[in-house]
Design goal:
seven-stranded parallel β-sheet; six-stranded parallel β-sheet; binds zinc ion; globular; about 20% strand; 27 helices
């Protein structure tokens, strides 16, 4: 046995670490070992076994966790490629690839005790306690820990420590004081996860309901509350809000969702003590769907273009060498049937395939179809799986029990053997890009994995990304076209409404134009279904003071807060912070605060007013909380129980609804005003996708597209269903501006909670970039990021554009080394290679 092994440990450092192998231990390359790292024990992946003595003293590995590799040679290579290409710490890459964290990690968790609650209560009243000589800083940290645990169940040590910055010693001290309890929760707890649910007790439920009714009926709730004789219920505003929220939610709410209300945590405990609310523990259940799916035989009857597409794919699979294909099929052309037929053939040959779908694409109905075609040989990996379930699926795949894998982004790492085919559906979808370290793009990783495996890869889309279509045009991928809808159904007619003209003619800003209103009325009269897209949730996106002109911004972000009327709160859509609805301006105390603009919640209300008879449903992240909600909404549409569906881009993606004959698009072009070079492409894709929802059944469809940018080419080409026209025009802009696909692009973001640090660090790196020779690379910046403050961080960035990817990555690597020399923390320098967002 060699004497040393190199181990990738999941820490934010761009290197592996060398350990010595004690006699008797037999680690394997691609297997996991437990190693001491700083003060902790961590697991890592063995990358190499060797006899090269390192220059520094090494520690022994503690345990060998696997006798067989968990990552085969191909996945190890893929991981190294990702670390290299995306400049991501290698240990973090492997942690992302391997969903087995829950299995062997010793898990310590903490919970607050009754004494802890009491201490928290006292600290809140007196400000500080003088019971020891501990530093004020320690007391503050203790307070943070108690506050954090106050309404949560068992919290794992890593998340507790990262949220409160408490040291282990401090936590041990708190355990000794019996403020918190500590438990080893390795293994068993995952299987029976529970959650706390707040339940409104019945007597009071009635009172709370009455209040809500009163309030929505009366126009001045404050006055009414004061003058109306109350029964025995004396409540402060926070308690009242909490009870109202609970009542509005039907009397039960998981405790963790109440935390978004921005109400002191003690409020809930007080209400529990007063007997108004009870906390119950319930199993946090998991299920694919509660709805029964109808069994229907899957039809593999393909039309000639579909057959030709299938032929090309299977030919590539049989060749057993890498081949990339771009399947460009208009909306409704039957791409999914081609995917499934190809995967069926691969399975019949005893080989494996992976189908990647966007986050929103994996509904229970899709899962049901998959089970129909592949029975038990399919493993479905989606974001709602618990760690335990994910690990189970991983083992099934590893054992070869499931040779068809369908899943979102990380399914690209599924440990299948004899991989023959990877399909990336809706390859342009931005959910394939992971927006945290490692910032990989699953589509590009899929192409690389197929290359390493000698497999075929199919990228499918109605609106391919510029990059992929460009690659096809350059013959890097074979281009397969499905130019027609199935059964020769026509693409919908698109009518553009110029909203500036609408304003001139009606004298006021309209949300729904006269034409769209008329069309909706006609469809409803014919009992046909209508879908309206407004890609902005909430009621009003802006609250403005008419006296001083300031907007209400999030306290953590440079972002206007959105008014959510039903929930009676303001919310930041970037960090989730919520605040009460302001009665006066926070800056100048003026009472002239105005709520401006329209979100999906307001649009729904507006449509109710215009079409009181219509059955209206809304789909956005406020109405769709779980997978069931979404599925129920789609089922309601298919069953004809909904006349009018309002929603954000969630309604635009891939759903096959047959009764929709009219699609209205309201304000989908607002993205065109953003300082982002992909804005036109995104708008074109969204407009094409949503227009594709119309006329998928017997009756032809129509789209009414309201816009303030009616001359913009993204709008014009989308209206003409002309992808190639859009592509050629957009490509010219990219070429002039040296943007992808004409350059490799990276965004380097410097962030810190302290503005001075962020400024100083970006200045340091800016000077270094200036001094360094880097031919053929343009460095823009440092500049304030378009969103200069986000989630409490101040943000500055550089945009790098290079003709050569090798040179770009070399420069980035040197920049990271410089940052390390200048003691800039690695976690505060974010390198985003092939960034999708420059905001
Ligand atoms: Zn003001
Ligand atoms: Zn925010």
């Amino acid at each position: 046995m060699p004497h040393f092994c190199d181990v990738a440990v999941a820490v934010p450092l761009d290197m592996a670490f060398t350990y010595s192998i004690p006699s008797g231990a037999n680690p394997v390359v691609g297997g996991r070992v437990l190693v001491p790292f700083r003060q902790q024990r961590m697991s890592g992946i063995v990358l190499d076994l060797h006899d090269r003595p390192p220059t520094v003293k090494t520690k022994n590995i503690l345990h060998v966790l696997d006798t067989e590799p968990v990552l085969d040679e191909q996945l190890l290579r893929l991981g190294r490629w990702i670390a290299d290409y995306y400049l991501a710490p290698i240990g973090e890459v492997f942690r992302t690839m391997l969903p087995l964290g829950a299995e062997f990690k010793k898990k310590i968790a903490y919970r607050i005790t009754e004494q802890g609650h009491m201490a928290l209560h006292l600290a809140g009243m007196s400000g500080s306690s003088a019971r020891s000589q501990r530093t004020p800083e320690d007391q503050l940290t203790e307070f943070r820990v108690l506050d954090f645990l106050a309404e949560r169940d068992w919290i794992a040590e890593p998340s507790l420590r990262s949220s409160t910055r408490a040291s282990r010693a401090l936590l041990s001290g708190m355990v000794r004081k019996k403020w918190i309890a500590r438990e080893d929760v390795s293994g068993a707890r995952d299987a029976t996860r529970t959650m706390k649910v707040a339940v409104l007790l019945s007597v009071e439920e009635k009172i709370a309901e009455e209040e809500i009714d009163d309030r929505s009926a009366g126009d001045s709730p404050a006055v009414e509350r004061a003058t109306r004789p109350r029964t025995t219920l004396k409540l402060n505003d926070n308690q009242r809000t909490l009870l109202d929220t609970l009542a509005a939610a039907g009397g039960r709410i998981p405790v963790h969702t109440l935390q978004s209300l921005d109400i002191p945590r003690s409020t809930l405990s007080t209400l529990v003590k007063r007997g108004l609310i009870q906390i119950q523990e319930e199993p946090a259940e998991f299920h694919v769907s509660r709805l029964k799916v109808q069994a229907k035989p899957f039809a593999f009857e393909l039309n000639p273009p579909q057959k030709e597409a299938l032929r090309q794919i299977t030919e590539s699979v049989t060749a057993k060498t890498f081949r990339g294909m771009l399947l460009h099929g208009v909306t409704g052309s039957g791409k999914t049937a081609v995917y499934l037929a190809a995967m069926r053939q691969v399975l019949d040959e005893g080989r494996s395939s992976i189908l990647l779908v966007p986050e929103i694409g994996l509904t229970p109905a899709v899962a049901a179809d998959l089970h129909q075609v592949f029975a038990d040989e399919v493993a479905i990996l989606h974001s709602a799986l618990t760690d335990q379930e994910r690990a189970e699926q991983w083992h099934r795949i590893k054992r070869g029990e499931a040779r068809v894998v369908v899943g979102t982004r990380s399914a690209v790492f599924a440990p299948v053997s004899d991989l023959a085919l990877i399909i990336v559906d809706e390859e342009q979808d931005s959910s394939y890009k992971q927006e945290e370290t490692p910032r990989y793009h699953a589509r590009d990783v899929a192409v690389m994995r197929a290359k390493m495996a000698g497999a075929a890869v199919v990228l499918g889309s109605a609106t391919p990304s510029l990059e992929s279509y460009y690659n096809a045009k350059k013959n890097k991928y074979a281009l397969i076209e499905l130019p027609d809808r199935v059964e020769k159904r026509p693409l919908p007619e698109v009518e553009i409404i110029d909203m500036r003209q609408e304003y001139e003619e009606t004298g006021q800003e309209q949300v729904i134009s006269r034409k769209l209103a008329e069309e909706i009325g006609e469809r409803l009269a014919k009992r046909e279904q209508v879908m309206i897209l407004l890609n902005r949730r909430g009621y009003s996106p802006v609250v403005l003071c008419r006296t001083c002109g300031k907007k209400l911004e999030c306290k953590n972000c440079a972002i206007a807060m959105t008014h959510h009327k039903r929930d009676r709160r303001m919310e930041c859509h970037y960090c989730g912070h919520s605040a009460p609805v302001p009665k006066q301006c926070a800056h100048c105390s003026s009472e002239y605060v105005y709520f401006l603009g329209t979100g999906s919640e307001k649009l729904e209300e507006l449509l109710h007013g215009m079409f009181p008879q219509a059955r209206i449903a809304r789909v956005d992240r406020d109405t769709v909380r779980g997978r069931d909600d979404f599925e129920r909404m789609l089922a309601g549409m298919n069953a004809g129980e909904i006349d009018l569906l309002v929603g954000t881009q969630m309604i635009a993606k891939g759903h096959d609804l047959h009764g929709v004959t009219l699609v209205g698009v309201v304000g989908a072009d607002s993205a065109l005003g953003l300082p982002d070079f992909r804005a036109a492409e995104r708008t074109f894709q969204l407009l094409t996708q949503v227009a594709g929802r119309a006329g998928r059944g017997e009756s032809p469809g129509k789209v009414v597209l309201q816009t303030y940018f009616q001359d913009h080419y993204a709008v014009q080409y989308a209206a003409q269903h002309d992808f190639v026209g859009f592509y050629e025009k957009e490509l010219r802009f990219r070429s002039w501006m040296h943007y992808p696909p004409y350059s490799a692009l990276a965004n380097v973001l410097i962030r810190s909670e302290k503005m001075n640090d962020a400024l100083e660090w970006s200045g340091t790196l800016g000077r270094w970039f200036e001094k360094t020779r880097h031919e053929g690379i343009r460095v823009l910046g440092p500049a304030a990021a378009p969103i200069v403050r986000l989630k409490n961080d101040y943000r500055y960035h550089f945009v790098l554009k290079a003709a050569s990817r090798e040179k770009l990555n070399k420069l980035l690597r040197e920049m990271l080394a410089e940052a390390a020399r200048k003691k800039i923390p690695r976690t505060q320098v974010i390198v985003d290679v092939d960034a999708l967002w420059l905001m």
